[in-house]
Amino acid sequence: MTQLLDGIQFPIHPERLKPTSSQVGKDIIAAAFANIDQRCATQVSQEKKWRKHYPYYFKELLKHAIQHDEHAIKIAEQGLEKAQQSFYFHRDAKQYPLEQLMQIPRTGTLQHIKITGDQQQKIDWYVPYQGQQLRGKALTQQLEQWQAQGIIEAGHAQALQWVIDHPECLDLSQRYIVLMGAGSEAGPLSWLCKWKANVIALDLANEKVWQRIIATVKAGNATLYAPSFTALTAQDPDIAQHLGVNLLTDTPEIIQYLQQQPHRLDLAAIAYLDGEKHVRLSIAMDQIVQQLCQVKPDSSLMYMCTPTDIYAIAEDIIDATQQKYLQRSRIEKLLCNNLSRLSFKKLFKQNSNQLITANNGKRYGIADCLVIEQGPNYALAKRIQQWRAIVARQQGHLVSINIAPSTTTHSVTKNPLLKAAFRGAALFDVEAFSPDTTNALMAALWVHDLSNPQSSANPKHNLAHPLELISDNANHGGLWRVAYLARSALSAAAVYGLAREKLPF
Question: Domain of life here (predicted)?
Answer without folding.
Answer: Bacteria
